[in-house]
């Protein structure tokens, strides 16, 4: 059966995909008009986004490894095509780099799946639960998926790609495409390797380094989009903390970690999409992309800045956002499991996160030396982004129904 | 459990919903913004007054829902919370009035008042929170909403102060988060007042409880400016005067102190805190802070910096009071929560008035100001004498009850701390009073004011003068009429006798 997995989590992720792709499409129409993108190229955006939406929904609903693998490839190719759309020098270079990286990921995935097929003809996840896999196999497939989800240390392709792509593309990519690879990694690990405890710890440590490294680099960026892109690297690190807490721990810990991670996936998707949209408006208005251009922007574009702020609150995991509730549950799981290292990592990550977010705001509060001219982008752009950001905030206190839908680990 | 949730929500919503409305108004809509601000402040004061009366009658106000399994959002009005809510809504009204006058004609007023309302909403949320999760929510919201106020002026100095402020408060927030989660892991959800939950944990959990308590104190101590976690407070003085007043009297510093009160009385319970030896540690930390803050205040030449170090010292009286095991100490600590707010807000308003009207920032520029600005100087004198602890001002009551509490708790060394601190208070406030009233100033032909502006027909703008006089009058009346019901002292005694005595 290709679709036995249409459980609460799949439904949630499909709803999330539909919401984010839909919002990005609506946003994209106005954004591309306002930014004066060539019409021939922008027309290509819609079919590609539609295909991407279809592929992602198939992936989240699928309980079959081959189906997951195939649609992940479709997703990646769509994403590469979307990245190349602006046609600028930077986007060509970043897109090619992304293509090379994602294809090398595929080169690791393909033999792994083929080897598995030689062991067990039925590759549905249910049937695969019986199969024993060797550690090298797990390492190879995990490495392939880590490339695709921009997990440390295989994240190098992500920041330039996000910086060069169109805003509606960056939103969908950061919010959904990298989560697709994470989703597949989780289903591979829960099915095939629930005993690979040291491997799970290793993934946790990779995640920890990603949190620290991504946040530090986000803090060092001079371009606004760079800050947002590196913050994605850090956020993927938080997701990887799921593995050490899910395997080999008590059921209560595993449930908490499971629920917190998917809650984080959802709130991060909403918040990151909102943040990219806000950054898009800010860059459009300032006519430049660097942080120094932000001084005095609060006067002219309070709404964009508000959206950025709300999204940042969720990304940092400050209350009352979805990110906060997710972080609360993650800490709860880590303390319950007495795996103190992750508590420290989350604490350090929060501090570094605050450092890079407030660095952006610091520039906003500087009083500009001369009045600069800004074009105010259409207000619809900000309203779409605001709704997404508010959804990420609302997820914090209204987490109960969402968590109930996520359910427990398989 | 939902009892009369309407009033609670309405009180919270008055300032929470005003914030987006203010952000939506255009910058030049002065009249609409002012009406909205004052209307909301008055409305909130009325709603809180209704709840105070209700709580005194024995009504309960509560509202709650589950966030995730084992964690719930709880708002409720108990005597302690409503006391803090009353203080914050009273001082919000005066601070708003003052801020309207203070920021007259300066840029970015919309942003200022928007975040100002958010800040007050967070303070009210802190007051009405029914458990640590809800408390933490509003506590962090307070950090976020005060940052734009601290960096309001956008100068390099303000930005640096804002960065320091965040470094301290965000780190404190993370520690607090970890501590609260750890407490959940250990004991499940503890609503404020369910003191038996932790008390019934066996002795094998005591090491954990002590560890979590230390973490909680570190997290809350940052905002309460316990030495050595106080470094952000003197720097945050670059903020506009109404912000400093708010920060020192009700919002940030008090939120920390109030959190400590909640943890000691309503989570751990005073008996368990005493049994675990936590109170002694708190008393030592508070005493050290009191003396250190006063000593540093002596050395300051900038008025606001001297007041800031005085806050460091004075807020620790609250912690000292609750760490004295016994009802007297409790009364002293809780009453001082209100007393210090009234006095400190007055002093900061005065400092703002001197700076606005005459351009005075340093203490040595204050010579002879008493004759130029008698109203403001009178208010300053009342506040300063209260801080020193001269009867019948409120500060005297705090110190008197602290002393009695120290004897009751069998910690006579605390009296030495009190005496030393009062002497230091006198040493750093009396010279100011001497300069104000007795030294010849520019009116007698000695020197000139740094930057005189003649803001109004009175000694300064009426917006600036009346709030100062009002808060000064409150701090006098609260001392003189301490025996009447609803005075800070009798309310604190009510809490001490009804809630905290076994």
Characterization of this structure:
The complex is a heterodimer of chains A (410) and B (502). By secondary structure, chain A is mostly helical. In chain A, 79% of the residues lie in helices and 0% in strands. The mean pLDDT of chain A is 90. Chain B has a domain at 344-502. The mean pLDDT of chain B is 89. The chains are: A mainly alpha (410), B mainly alpha (502). Chain A binds chain B through residues 259, 298-299, 302, 306, 313, 318-320, 324-325, 327-329, 331-332, 335-336, 343, 347, 350-351, 354, 358, 361-362, 365-367, 396-397, 399-400, 403, and chain B through 23, 27, 65-69, 71, 73, 108, 111, 133, 136-138, 140-141, 144, 147-148, 151-152, 154-155, 158-159, 162-163, 166, 170-171, 173-175, 177-178, 181-182, 184-185.
Secondary structure layout:
The complex is a heterodimer of chains A (410) and B (502).
Chain A: H1 8-35, H2 39-61, H3 65-84, H4 89-119, H5 125-128, H6 135-148, H7 158-164, H8 167-192, H9 197-220, H10 224-240, H11 242-246, H12 251-286, H13 297-300, H14 302-316, H15 322-336, H16 340-365, H17 379-397, H18 399-406
Helix pairs in contact in A: 1-2, 1-8, 1-12, 1-17, 1-18, 2-3, 2-8, 3-4, 3-8, 4-6, 4-7, 6-8, 7-10, 8-10, 8-12, 9-10, 9-16, 10-12, 10-16, 12-14, 12-15, 12-17, 12-18, 14-16, 14-17, 15-16, 15-17
Chain B: H1 5-24, H2 30-57, E1 61-68, E2 71-77, H3 79-102, H4 109-128, H5 132-150, H6 156-187, H7 196-199, H8 206-224, H9 232-235, H10 241-249, H11 252-268, H12 270-275, H13 278-298, H14 303-323, H15 327-358, H16 369-372, H17 374-388, H18 394-408, H19 413-437, H20 462-480, H21 488-498
Can you summarize this structure?
With 410 residues, chain A is mainly alpha-helical. Chain A has 18 helices and no strands.
Round the mean pLDDT of chain B to the nearest integer and report it.
89
Topology as H/E string of chain A?
Answer: HHHHHHHHHHHHHHHHHH
Largest sheet of chain A: none
Average pLDDT of chain A works out at: 90
Number of separate strands of chain A: 0
Q: What pair of chains forms the biggest interface?
A: A-B, 34 and 40 residues
Report the radius of gyration of chain A as a whole number of Å.
20 Å
Integer-rounded radius of gyration of chain B: 22 Å
Give, in spatial order, the strands making up the sheet with the most strands of chain B. 1-2
> What is the molecular shape of chain A?
globular
Number of helices of chain B: 21
């Amino acid at each position: 059966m290709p679709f036995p997995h249409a459980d609460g989590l799949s439904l949630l992720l499909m709803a999330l995909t539909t919401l984010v792709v839909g919002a990005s499409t609506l946003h994209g129409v106005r954004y591309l008009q306002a930014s004066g993108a060539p019409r021939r190229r922008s027309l290509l955006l819609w079919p590609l986004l539609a295909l991407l939406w279809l592929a992602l929904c198939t992936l989240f609903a699928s309980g079959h490894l081959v189906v997951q693998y195939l649609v992940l490839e479709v997703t990646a190719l769509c994403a590469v095509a979307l990245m190349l759309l602006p046609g600028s020098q930077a986007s060509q270079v970043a897109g090619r780099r992304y293509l090379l990286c994602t294809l090398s990921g595929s080169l690791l995935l393909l033999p792994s799946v083929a080897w598995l097929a030689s062991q067990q003809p039925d590759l549905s996840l249910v049937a695969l639960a019986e199969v024993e896999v060797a550690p090298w196999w797990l390492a190879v497939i995990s490495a392939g998926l880590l490339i695709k989800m921009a997990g440390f240390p295989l994240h190098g392709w992500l920041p330039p790609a996000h910086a060069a792509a169109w805003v509606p593309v960056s939103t969908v990519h950061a919010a959904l495409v990298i989560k697709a690879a994470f989703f597949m990694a989780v289903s591979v690990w829960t099915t095939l390797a629930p005993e690979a405890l040291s491997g799970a710890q290793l993934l946790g440590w990779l995640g920890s380094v990603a949190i620290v490294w991504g946040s530090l680099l986000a803090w060092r960026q001079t371009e606004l989009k760079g800050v947002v892109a590196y913050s994605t690297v850090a956020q993927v690190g938080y997701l990887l903390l799921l593995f050490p807490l899910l395997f080999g721990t008590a059921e209560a810990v595993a449930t908490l970690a499971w629920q917190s991670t998917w809650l984080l996936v959802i709130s991060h998707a909403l918040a990151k999409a909102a943040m990219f949209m806000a950054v898009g408006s800010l860059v459009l208005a300032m006519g430049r992309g660097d942080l120094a251009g932000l001084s005095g922007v609060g006067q002219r574009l309070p709404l964009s800045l508000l959206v950025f702020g709300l999204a940042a609150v969720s990304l940092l995991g400050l209350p009352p956002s979805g990110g906060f509730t997710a972080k609360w549950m993650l800490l709860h799981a880590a303390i319950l499991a007495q795996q103190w290292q992750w508590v420290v990592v989350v604490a350090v990550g929060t501090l570094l996160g605050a450092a890079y977010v407030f660095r952006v705001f610091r520039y906003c509060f500087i009083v500009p030396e001369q009045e600069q001219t800004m074009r105010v982008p259409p207000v619809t752009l900000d309203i779409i982004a605001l709704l997404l950001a508010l959804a990420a905030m609302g997820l914090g206190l209204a987490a109960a129904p969402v968590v109930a839908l996520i359910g427990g680990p398989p | 459990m939902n009892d009369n949730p309407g009033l609670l929500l309405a009180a919270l919503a008055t300032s929470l919903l005003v914030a987006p409305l203010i952000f939506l108004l255009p910058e030049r809509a002065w009249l609409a913004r002012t009406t909205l601000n004052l209307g909301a402040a008055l409305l909130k004061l009325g709603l809180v007054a209704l709840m105070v009366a209700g709580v005194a009658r024995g009504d309960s106000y509560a509202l709650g829902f589950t966030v995730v399994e084992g964690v719930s959002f709880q708002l409720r009005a108990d005597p302690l919370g409503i006391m803090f809510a009353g203080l914050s809504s009273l001082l919000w009204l005066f601070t708003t009035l003052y801020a309207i006058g203070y920021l007259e004609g300066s840029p970015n007023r919309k942003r200022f008042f928007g975040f100002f309302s958010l800040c007050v909403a967070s303070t009210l949320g802190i007051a009405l929170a029914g458990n640590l999760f809800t408390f933490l929510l509003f506590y962090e919201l307070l950090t976020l909403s005060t940052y734009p106020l601290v960096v309001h002026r956008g100068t390099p100095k303000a930005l640096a102060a804002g960065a320091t402020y965040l470094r301290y408060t965000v780190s404190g927030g993370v520690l607090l988060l970890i501590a609260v989660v750890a407490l959940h892991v250990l004991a499940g959800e503890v609503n404020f007042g369910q003191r038996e939950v932790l008390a019934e944990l066996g002795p094998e959990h005591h090491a954990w409880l002590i560890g979590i308590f230390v973490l909680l104190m570190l997290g809350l101590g940052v905002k309460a400016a316990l030495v050595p976690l106080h470094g952000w407070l003197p720097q945050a003085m670059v903020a506009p005067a109404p912000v400093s007043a708010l920060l020192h009297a009700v919002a940030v510093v008090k939120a920390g102190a109030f959190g400590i009160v909640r943890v000691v009385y309503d989570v751990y319970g005073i008996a368990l805190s005493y049994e675990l030896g936590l109170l002694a540690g708190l008393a030592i930390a508070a005493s050290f802070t009191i003396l250190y803050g006063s000593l540093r205040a002596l050395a300051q030449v900038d008025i606001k910096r001297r007041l800031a170090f005085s806050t460091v010292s004075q807020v620790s009286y609250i912690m000292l009071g609750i760490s004295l095991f016994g009802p007297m100490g409790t009364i002293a600590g809780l009453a001082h929560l209100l007393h210090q707010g009234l006095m400190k807000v007055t002093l900061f308003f005065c400092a703002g008035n001197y700076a606005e009207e005459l351009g005075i920032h340093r203490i040595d520029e204050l010579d002879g100001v008493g004759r130029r600005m008698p109203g403001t100087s009178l208010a300053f004198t009342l506040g300063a004498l209260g801080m020193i602890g001269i009867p019948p001002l409120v500060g005297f009551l705090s110190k008197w009850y602290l002393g009695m509490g120290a004897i009751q708790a069998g910690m006579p060394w605390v009296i030495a701390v009190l005496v030393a601190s009062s002497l230091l208070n006198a040493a750093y406030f009396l010279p100011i009073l001497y300069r104000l009233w007795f030294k010849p100033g520019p009116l007698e032909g000695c020197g000139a004011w740094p930057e005189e502006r003649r803001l109004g027909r009175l000694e300064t703008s009426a917006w600036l003068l009346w709030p100062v006089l009002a808060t000064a009058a409150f701090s006098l009346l609260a001392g003189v009429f301490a025996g009447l019901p609803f005075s800070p002292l009798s309310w604190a005694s009510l809490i001490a006798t009804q809630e905290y005595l076994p």
